[in-house]
Please model this.
Amino acid sequence: MKTEKNCLQEFARYASFNVLGMLGLSCYILADTYFISKGLGADGLTALNLAIPVYSMIHGCGLMAGMGGGTRYAIQKSLGDSGLTDRLFTNAVMLAGGLAILFVAIGVFGTDGITKLLGADASVYGMTRTYLRMILLFSPAFLMNNVLLCFVRNDGSPQRSMRAMLAGSLSNVILDYIFIFPCGMGIFGAVLATCLAPLISLLLLSPHLLKKENQFHFTRCKPEFQWIAAILASGVPSLVTELSSGIVMIVFNMLILFLRGNTGVAAYGIIANLSLVVVSIYTGIAQGMQPVISKHYGAGEPQSVRAALRYALVSMLAVSILIYAGIFFYADFVSAIFNKDKDQTLQNIAVEGLRLYFLSCPFAGFNIVSCAYFTSAARPLPANIISILRGFVIILPFAFLFSMVWGMTGIWCALPCTELFVAGIGILFFRKIQTAAACSY
Model:
């Protein structure tokens, strides 16, 4: 009982800080959504929604390096090898640096082509292009911020990670308002505020590198394939989750453009950006669970591993009930907040979408927590399968098929049906692992 109580306290500490921090982090885009809707109207919302998939890709690559490296770091730290933890951190930074060079190059040379590929028409082309270029040019800050957040959290400082995320997000909200309204900088002001946020977060994280009790440091070493492969194996589920959300948004945008035009995409922009906030809560729970599970898994304490998983699932379910109840009863109010021009068509589309799309909450939460559990316990294969199924293999055919049969209603139902289907597969993985564990005794 004492062990479980300690595990609960440990989980509560990490999860609470991470949920708060991730909520703050999600304000990057939500603040843009609100201020752009007020300052630039439906065209601004459409441009933002077309550009968000690229942000998701950058964020996912940062999480891949950060979560993959942080998970391996927590396991190695529990084994007490400081030399390996230093090399692991350095390799994670080198991986993020290589990705940053790629994104910056795309920002310099490929923004026009990406803007056209995403489906921006003449009315929103300029705003979409501006948002994309800035996000890509500032990608090194986003990537390094994600790496440091994960390592600092796994080094026993979830408070510092939370403060850094919240400070970055608060600055984003304040600068969004200043740049869009008093300064009149339009979409450039919105994206500049977003790009400055990770720099502020990094300023708060960097002192941790100088602390004596810090157990990871930069060290001289060449890129080591075995460590980069280990980071990728543990981090790919995080990348797939973010990458798939970007790809799903691209596909949904194109289908909705065909069915309802820019007004439909603007309505989907409201839903998609609120979805980022909801997913951030589940990600916060999962990331709060990860250091606890990795630590006890490395120490050979399966009872504590199972307890942490149970606490995460109960928390996820309670949050899901609260979120869906709020969305169902206040869908009109939520939609109206972002509907500057009081467009009744946009309002109707968004209200229906909110009530159907967010039926996915408990199943999406279960899948995100499951992926984090499998990754944290050094079982990346089930996590990768779940991520790929929910991100590409199931949802894309569902979206095309359902939209052909039921139109916009079908598009909104594609996500809940996908998450439910994949959650069933996740349960089968859990049962298989339990059966294997029982047979080993």
In short: The chain has 15 helices and no strands. The mean pLDDT is 87.
